[in-house]
Specification:
The protein is built from six helices and no strands. The chain has 130 residues and is mostly helical.
């Protein structure tokens, strides 16, 4: 019963350390994205890292808004310099994610399990006559 009484109260965990509130969508996105958790170990931190989860959210929200504006033909409100800057930051973040995934794949493929798996499929195809 106390959860109903206190569940809607504001707390420290409802805000980034810059005072901006954290939306439920941002919480869910972070909770289920291992990559975001790796890139931003402290999602509340906006001051000690070069790029923060807050920056990533702002960047992706602005890109979605700009794309929506383009579809609506509302080009006069789109600041092209800001859009290029936001896209450039997003590209940098995606490159970081690609590097992480590439390293994970290289580690997997060099493992004994992966080599054994590859040999098993080769042997299996020989016996099936493929």
């Amino acid at each position: 019963m106390d959860s109903l009484k206190y569940g809607n109260l504001e707390s420290f965990y409802n805000f980034f350390d810059n005072g901006e509130s954290i939306s439920n969508q941002a919480r869910i996105l972070y909770r289920y994205s291992k990559k975001l958790q790796e890139l931003f170990p402290n999602p509340y931190d906006t001051k000690t890292r070069k790029r923060s989860f807050f920056d990533w959210l702002q960047l992706n929200n602005s890109i979605q808004h700009d794309i929506g504006s383009l579809y609506l033909g509302d080009l006069e409100h789109v600041n092209h310099h800001e859009k290029i800057s936001a896209l450039s930051k997003n590209i940098d973040l995606l490159k970081g994610e690609i590097n992480i995934v590439t390293a994970e794949m290289a580690a997997m493929e060099s493992s004994k399990f992966w080599k054994l798996r590859t040999a098993w499929f080769a042997l299996k195809s020989i016996f099936k006559g493929e």
